[in-house]
Design brief:
The chain is mainly α. The chain has a single domain, classed as Tetracycline Repressor, domain 2. It contains 14 helices and no strands. The chain starts with a helix and ends with a helix. Belongs to the UbiA prenyltransferase family. DGGGP synthase subfamily.
Length: 286
């Protein structure tokens, strides 16, 4: 049992990226208070990390098949210590949210409850688990919006929609890749019902919905944004379309659709940051 296991199990890169995303959302919502931004970063990062820990706790039997290198199945961290660590992180996130406002606190509490329900039960239920992850990913933008105020919250809704549909598509494909391990763990996921190829078709439809939502920020950022997001949209659509040709989990893994969609979503997030920095901060100075 080592200190590094406590860091590894929170998936630090994933958690920190979530915190940075929340700050980007705060900037897009016209937030300017650096202390509020830092508090938001801590809240989102630790709650995301806690969810990752709890997910590993409940998935330890499945991970023994799919990911034996993870801290719990490898023996680097005991299940009990992992559960305590998750509780500590959740508590820190909620306590820090008391320093923000009611709506941030409300989202922090709701997301904590949903993360616990997801790890314990919802993940093994068809579609509900995927919907939970999609909402949780999109809600990072809502955090940034509500911290600034109700009017600013509206600005972040299109970004929530883009993230929700894109994440839902990717989660369904990830579940299709993990059919064997999930079945061994007693899960009943949507790809088990639909099959790998039909899951690919569903992902394409969801990506199309995300693309429709991605057009909305044009009114805020103009033609340059529209041209850049069009390239990213086409890349993500191509990644999802590759999954339609796959009939087995092995073929889907080889197609790398989930990885390509993730890269495309990171590119979109970077574009949001660049557009807001230019039009919201740099351009007004000239």
């Amino acid at each position: 049992m080592s200190l590094s296991a406590y860091v590894t199990i929170i998936r630090p890169a994933n958690a920190v990226i979530s915190g940075i995303t929340a700050i980007i959302a705060y900037l897009i919502a016209s937030g300017t208070n650096i202390f509020s931004a830092l508090a938001l970063f801590v809240i989102v990062t630790v709650i995301c990390g806690a969810g990752n820990v709890l997910n590993d706790y409940f998935d330890r039997d499945i991970d023994a098949i799919n990911r034996p290198d993870r801290p719990i199945p490898s023996g680097a961290l005991s299940p009990r210590n992992a559960a305590v660590w998750a509780g500590v992180l959740f508590a820190v996130g909620i306590l820090v949210s008391f320093a923000t406002n009611f709506w941030c606190l409300a989202i922090a509490v709701v997301n904590t409850i949903l993360l616990i329900a997801y790890a314990a039960k919802l993940k093994k239920m068809p579609l509900l688990g995927n919907l939970s992850v999609a909402y949780l990913s999109g809600s990072i933008f809502l955090f940034g919006g509500v911290l600034v105020g109700p009017e600013s919250f509206i600005v972040t809704l299109p970004l929530f929609a883009i993230t929700f549909f894109g994440t839902l598509a990717r989660e369904i494909l990830k579940a299709a890749e993990d059919i064997e391990g999930d079945a061994a763990g007693g899960a009943r996921t949507l790809p088990m019902i639909l099959g790998v190829q039909k899951s690919g078709y569903v992902s394409v439809i969801l990506i199309a919905c995300a693309i429709c939502a991605s057009v909305v920020p044009y009114s805020r950022w103009g033609a340059l944004y529209l041209a850049a997001i069009a390239v990213i949209d086409l890349f993500i659509l191509y990644a999802a379309a590759k999954s339609v040709r796959c009939k087995t989990p092995a073929e889907l893994i080889a197609a790398r659709s989930t990885s390509l969609i993730k890269y495309g979503m990171f590119a979109a997030l970077f574009l949001f940051l660049v557009m807001e920095l230019w039009y919201g901060i740099i351009s007004p100075l000239f």
